[in-house]
Amino acid sequence: MSSRLKHITKLAFQQSACTVVDCGCDHGKVLYWLLKENSDCRAIAIDKSSQSLEKARKLLECFGNRVAFFCADGLTCLGNNTYNLLIISGIGGYNIVDILTVSKAKFDRIILSPHRDIDLVKRWLTVNNYVITTDIRIECRGKEYTILESKDK
Q: What's the rounded Cα separation, in Å, for the pair 142 and 102?
């Protein structure tokens, strides 16, 4: 697992019993480690690519009904429910803001790792009543990445 994904997983571990939503889960590696290390955790894996979602399904099948899978573009499949943690990483800031803006779901904590347009993401979090509690930059494979953690006010 890359150092970026390790940092995201480390931040996510700060909460025990929870429901984690990974939007754009790709291979499902972050959810794998969260579910493996926390037996009280449940997960929702979302990806718009059916091929990526199938990779995640294969990796996470050992967790049985602790994980649900949705092939969807964004968070609209979640309805207006509240979840403990949302993770979105590996896409640009404009896409992240679009996904968050259309979503009716609410989240106690959000961990984001935008590839660009970081200030736009920070502004969205602040305007939408989230407090940024972690703002770090890490180097991974020769690139610098930002990881933001925020909590609902």
A: 33
Provide φ and ψ at 140, rounded to 5°: -145, 120
Statement: the pTM of the whole predicted model exceeds 0.90 = yes
Q: What is the CATH classification number for the domain harbouring 140?
A: 3.40.50.150
Measured distance CA(103)–CA(74) in Å, rounded: 8
Q: Tell me which residue range forms the domain holding 75.
A: 3-152
Residue among 140, 113, 144, 110 nearest 125 (CA):
110
Which residue do the tokens 């968070």 mark?
A: 75
Backbone angles phi, psi at 27, to 5 degrees: -85, -15
For residues 132 and 126, the answer to whether their CB atoms sit within 8 Å is yes
In angstroms, the CA 39 to CA 43 distance is 11
Q: Quote the number of domains for the chain.
A: 1
pLDDT > 90? residue 95: yes
Angle between helices 29-37 and 50-60 (to 10 degrees): 20
